[in-house]
Amino acid sequence: MARKVKGMVHLAGVTYRIVRVATGSYTIVRISDDRDVGGFSLAPALGLESRGLEPDVLREVARLAIHTAKTSYVGFPRPDLAAIDAGMAAANANAAPDVPAPAPVAAAAGGVRRPSSMPPAVPRTT
């Protein structure tokens, strides 16, 4: 796979370039000296590899890259919903029958759900 620049991330006065090197794998380049300072991978869990950058800073740069959409979508296989439903049905069948279901929130408040705060006042027009 060809290397592709995915974007820039700015953290604490330093700008980093995010470059995709493989599916789900990215390298982080510090712009000020054009030095590769680390990398990260997305699946199955966030993996970090530091090459001159503190691990906390590397984690924050990777987090910013993910949250600001500087990473590509990784197509995970579609889950088998039939197998999940069968597993949930089996788990529910094995549940203890003497455990009561929790009461709905509206029923606990007398059938009416009250707002947690009042809406702002509407200004009067003259």
Describe the structure.
The chain is of the alpha+beta class and 126 residues long. The chain has a domain at 4-67. 24% of the residues lie in helices and 27% in strands. It is built from 3 helices and 5 strands, in the order E-E-E-E-E-H-H-H. It has helices spanning 55-67, 81-93, 105-108; strands spanning 4-11, 14-22, 25-30, 35-41, 47-50. The protein has a 5-stranded antiparallel beta sheet with strand order 1-2-3-4-5, with helices on one face. The protein is flat.
Q: Give a quick account of the main beta sheet: strands, pairing sense, barrel closure.
A: 5 strands, antiparallel
Q: How many β-strand stretches?
A: 5
Strand content: 25-35%
Structural class: alpha+beta
Number of helices: 3
Helices and strands, in N-to-C order?
A: EEEEEHHH
In angstroms, what is the radius of gyration? Answer: 25 Å
Which sequence of strands runs across the widest sheet? 1-2-3-4-5
Shape: flat
Measured distance between first and last alpha carbons: 67 Å
- What share of the residues lie within helices? 10-25%
Unreliable parts: none
Average pLDDT taken over every residue = 74
List keywords for this structure.
5 strands; alpha+beta; 3 helices; 126 residues; flat
Helix and strand arrangement:
Blueprint: E1 4-11, E2 14-22, E3 25-30, E4 35-41, E5 47-50, H1 55-67, H2 81-93, H3 105-108
Antiparallel strand pairs: 1-2, 2-3, 3-4, 4-5
Q: What would you say about this model in short?
A:
This protein is 24% helix and 27% strand.
